[in-house]
Every structure is written in structure tokens, then in C-alpha cells.
Amino acid sequence: MSQTMVSARSKTTMIVGDRSLDVAVLEVIKLESLIANDPVETTKLLEAAKSQGFFYVTCDNDLSQKISDYLRTCYLNSHEFFAKPLDEKMKAFREGMNDGYKRAGIESFEITRDEQNRTTLPSPFAEHAGATLDLLNICDTIVRTLLRSISDSLGLDESASLQNAHRPDGKSDSGLKFVSGPTKASTADVPDTTHTDGGSITLLWCEKWASQMQTKETKEWLWIDPKPNCVLVNIADYLQSQTGLHSPVHRVSQPSDGVEDRYFVSYFLRPNH
Ligand SMILES: [Fe+2]
User: Fold this and answer.
1) How far is the CA of 194 from the centre of ligand 1 (A)?
2) InterPro entries under this entry (predicted)?
3) 17-33 residue pLDDT tens
């Protein structure tokens, strides 16, 4: 339960549980307007990508409902999969690969775009392969729409376009990732996960308060509101290196004490290799 109290230009204050949080005010970009090359929306996207590097994207009602249904399935599947015994989960481990099961600090399971039709999904993802892979491809369409819009806004011609390094028929490690990051009994025990993302564009869904970002100018840590019916997007290191857009420093955290399940669904657009 949260409530907005004070608004300012770049941050606002919200009451979450028994805490007052400084929360980032981020742009909300409409996907359909980008598809239609709306100049106001594309400018808004470029400014958000240059300034804080984090923004939200919304979709039309039909797509939004579809994503919401798929996420529900993904959260249930994640709950069931990560609760399995370790030896069972390790059957989905892939040495030296981005895809598969990982337990480096936090547990995750990733399906890469390139391998989606060759990967044997573990249960219960296998029983919901249609929804899982449809979500993966919806995510891929969203990030490619963002990439094209950013590339056009930057005025890059065809030979220098960002799409050249992200050809759908080229090899990449882009993928859909499910993460189990349960909260800690005490916020004092939350590990420091400060980082930037290494790829090009990241999509993130999480139903709970889980993310903090550092502002570009003042380096102040602000919470990110897990707004319903939005996907949180951030620019990552590769795009920053190619374009001067901002790959924001961020971390996973929790605003208050108490252990509970918490699942993330992410999509990582990574360049061709
Ligand atoms: Fe990240």
C-alpha cells in the first residue's frame, strides 16, 4: 500500500508500509506512439534515455492484458521452479552459458532468444512453453521498437544505425530471465548489488518494491515505484558506449524488514557477437 505525499521535478515522496521513501519520477512512454513515430513521444524517449536512463513503457490495453496474464503465469512458474530441490534445478544448469539455471548469489533461470526453440524447458515452464516463449518474443519486439526509435531520434543513418549491431538474424545472448530474489529478515542484511547492466536495453517487471537507482547528476539513491501495467526499462552499458545515452547505476534492495518471496521477470537485449 503506498501513497504519494510530495511531488518535485525529479523525485517524489511516497509512504510504503511504515516508511517514507524518496522515489524517482520517471517518464512514461507509450509503445504505440513510438510505433507510429510520434515526434513528441520519440523526443520524450530520447530525453529519458539521455538523462536518467530509466523510464517506464506502457502498451495498449490488449497487449497490456496479454503481458499481465503471461506475467501471472511466469510468477507462478517461478515460485514452483525455484522451490524445487537443488539437484532438480541443477538439471537446467548450462556451464559457461547465459541460458539455463544459475545460483550465483541469487537464483535465476534464463531462456535465450536464439535457443528458444532448441532449449528443453524444465517443468513447470515446459507446460507453459507457449505463454513463456510468446512473452519472450513480445519483449524482443518492445526492445527493438525502443532501439529503432532511439536510433532514428539520434539521426543515425542506415550504415550507423543501432539496429546493425542488433540484427534479429545475427547471433546474440538476448534473453528472458526469471529471478528469485527473496527479501531478508532485516534490511541490514541486504547485500550490496550496485551495478550497471552490460547489454543494450533491459526490461524489468517486479510486483514489489525492489529497485533503487542513482541519479545521474547528484548520485542520490532513489526508489523505483513498481507501477502496475508498466514495464521498467533501462539503458545498458553497450548503448551508453555507442551513443552517449546513460546506463544508470542501480541496485536491488527492500524498503522494510521481513522475508517474503519476490520474483523478477527481465528481458535483456544484447548486441550481436
Ligand atoms: Fe540490473
Assistant:
1) 8
2) DIOX_N, IPNS-like_FE2OG_OXY, IPNS-like_sf, Iron_ascorbate_oxido_reductase
3) 989 999 999 999 999 99
3-state secondary structure of 219: coil
Strand residue runs (E) in the chain:
2-7, 11-16, 19-24, 28-30, 54-58, 100-104, 106-112, 175-180, 201-206, 211-214, 221-224, 231-235, 250-252, 263-269
Domains assigned to the chain: 18-269 (2.60.120.330)
- Exposed/middle/buried for residue 40 (C-beta within 10 Å: 0-12, 13-18, 19+): exposed
Q: How far apart are CA 54 and CA 224, in angstroms?
A: 9
Helix (H, G, I), strand (E, B) or coil at 196: coil
Q: How far is the CA of 137 from the centre of ligand 1 (A)?
A: 20
SS3 35: helix
DSSP-based three-state secondary structure for 20 = strand
How many angstroms does the Cα of residue 60 sit away from the middle of ligand 1? 26
Residue 196 predicted with pLDDT over 70? yes
What global pTM score does this model have?
Answer: 0.95
